[in-house]
Request: fold
Amino acid sequence: MSETPDMTTIDNRRAVMKIPVTSLCAQAGIGRQTYYDGLERGTMRPDTLAKLNAALSRFHLAYDGEVRELAIHSAYKAAMVIAALHLQANARAALAADPSRKATADKDWLAAARVRRLAYWIANGMLGFRVTEVARAAGVTKQAVSNAIKDLEDDDDPEIRRVCRQLEEVFS
Reply:
């Protein structure tokens, strides 16, 4: 298990990769001032450090010349926002929710899971990304994405059926 780097290490990596602080913060889902405050203090909450480290990893994929990797991450986030809007859910909360928590008793986590499931379907079926690519962008296994898509397609919920029909009309 690898340890999350500290703020100085993250900032040094960011500088070497020539990533603007604004872009890194947007990718990590944190505020610029939070970043600068953490840099000044030399410390930051572990979950915020993990978000920054994950964002750096996504940029690293593009930095190494794999533009498609950055494209799927961007497309996945866009799919999450589209799904949240159609399900009248909080997009920011859905993006921030940790899929590995499996907090099925938490109504907020379940709402985010519902958004994720629709986003997987959008990214795969409507945008044409492979399940493996969607899984990598979402930070889950390809089986999780496949199962979520299958569950969505088998869902008898009239709201989900309506949303899927609307999205198919828009993307066709």
Summary: Residues 63-67 have pLDDT under 50 and may be disordered. The radius of gyration is 17 Å. The longest helix spans residues 67-86. The chain has ten helices and no strands.
